[in-house]
């Protein structure tokens, strides 16, 4: 039995990395998937792969900072597949990094808008559709950064991502009585284009992998399996959590 049979899901940040792997896994587990990101060609090729594998998916390109895009993703799920049960609000950027005394207001605001406000806008428009279904699951992609560890130069990213944990808790408390579960997944390093853009030397990769007890980054597929757990009824009593999937980074001091 497929774990998401009969379910309809939205996945943002689906043109790459964790979102792409999760959209493919959701579809393989029987969900009909609406995939979003800005790069349309990447989304179209993802949809083609899902369909070739016997799944169902549709793409809608747009920018998650836009409330109209949040509305349109939900409208697409309803128009194409009749309902919405699951939303993985995963799109994100590292944003402007560097000494906090030099971060521009524009860089700060862009990071907050892309990583945090987008998640709020997504949930705002997804929740009424989940209520019609009598419940559902929302997942946000946070990070260990700003939760269990931090580095110099990551103020905007850390603030945006730890803000998602507060949002998770507030929404879980507000909509739990209506059987809507809300959780945040907190990856350690995951081998995606974002990870490679930051860790572009052997020295940087060695530093980051050594922070993990498992001494390696995750694959996007490993994250996808954890997100599947939070999306599916396997986690039916799990809500309001900051769910670390970090290869032991948080408990490693060596
Ligand atoms: P990635 O490969 O760079 O993917 C990021 C995704 O977000 C892309 O699909 C990108 O699509 C989308 N995106 C970014 N800005 C967007 C915008 N304004 N509107 C719409 N879509 C947008 O990185 P990833 O590692 O898979 O990251 C996924 C999430 O995991 C992020 O939230 C990231 O912060 C988080 N995370 C990653 C790691 C890691 O080590 N990789 C660790 C912890 C948390 P387009 O460019 O096509 O718009």
What's the short story on this structure?
With 254 residues, the chain is of the alpha/beta class. The protein has helices at residues 17-28, 40-52, 67-81, 105-132, 155-175, 193-198, 202-210, 220-231, and strands spanning 8-12, 32-37, 56-61, 86-89, 136-141, 180-187, 242-245. The protein has a single domain (8-190, 220-246), classed as Rossmann fold, CATH 3.40.50.
Short descriptors:
single chain; 254 residues; alpha/beta; Rossmann fold; seven-stranded parallel beta sheet; 8 helices
Please outline the helices and strands:
Blueprint lengths: L7 E5 L4 H12 L3 E6 L2 H13 L3 E6 L5 H15 L4 E4 L15 H28 L3 E6 L13 H21 L4 E8 L5 H6 L3 H9 L9 H12 L10 E4 L9
Parallel strand pairs: 1-2, 1-4, 2-3, 4-5, 5-6, 6-7
The site of NADP nicotinamide-adenine-dinucleotide phosphate has 29 residues, from helix 1 and helix 6.
Structure description:
By secondary structure, the protein is α/β, with parallel strands linked by helices. It has one domain (8-190, 220-246): NAD(P)-binding Rossmann-like Domain (Rossmann fold). It is 46% helix and 15% strand. The chain has eight helices and seven strands. The protein has helices spanning 17-28, 40-52, 67-81, 105-132, 155-175, 193-198, 202-210, 220-231; strands spanning 8-12, 32-37, 56-61, 86-89, 136-141, 180-187, 242-245. Strands 3-2-1-4-5-6-7 form a seven-stranded parallel β-sheet, with helices on both faces. Strand 4 (86-89), helix 4 (105-132) and strand 5 form a beta-alpha-beta unit. Helix 1 packs across helix 8 (220-231), helix 3 packs parallel to helix 4 (105-132) and helix 4 runs parallel beside helix 5 (155-175). The longest helix is centred in the middle third of the chain and has 28 residues, at 105-132. The mean pLDDT is 98. NADP nicotinamide-adenine-dinucleotide phosphate is lined by residues 12-19, 37-39, 42, 63-65, 90-93, 114, 141, 143, 187, 189-190, 192-195.
């Amino acid at each position: 039995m497929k774990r998401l049979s009969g379910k309809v899901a939205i996945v943002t940040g689906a043109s790459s990395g964790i979102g792409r792997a999760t959209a493919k896994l959701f579809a393989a587990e029987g969900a009909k998937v609406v995939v979003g990101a800005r790069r349309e060609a990447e989304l179209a090729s993802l949809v083609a792969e899902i369909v070739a594998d016997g799944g169902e998916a549709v793409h809608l390109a747009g920018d998650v900072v836009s409330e109209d895009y949040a509305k349109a993703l939900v409208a697409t799920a309803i128009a194409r597949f009749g309902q919405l049960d699951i939303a993985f609000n995963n799109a994100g950027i590292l944003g402007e990094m560097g000494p906090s005394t030099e971060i521009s207001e524009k860089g700060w605001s862009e990071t907050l808008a892309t990583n945090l406000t987008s998640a709020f806008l997504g949930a705002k428009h997804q929740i009424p559709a989940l209520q019609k279904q009598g419940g559902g699951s929302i997942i946000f992609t946070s990070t260990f950064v700003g939760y269990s560890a931090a580095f110099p130069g990551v103020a905007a990213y850390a603030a945006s991502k730890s803000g998602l944990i507060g949002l998770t808790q507030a929404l879980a408390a507000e909509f739990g009585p209506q059987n809507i579960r809300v959780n945040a997944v907190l990856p350690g390093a995951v081998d995606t284009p974002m990870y490679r853009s930051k860790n572009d030397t052997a020295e940087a990769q060695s530093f980051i992998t050594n922070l993990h007890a498992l001494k390696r980054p995750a694959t996007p597929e490993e994250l996808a399996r954890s997100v599947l757990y939070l999306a599916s009824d396997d986690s039916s009593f799990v809500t309001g959590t900051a769910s670390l999937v970090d290869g032991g980074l948080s408990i490693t001091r060596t």
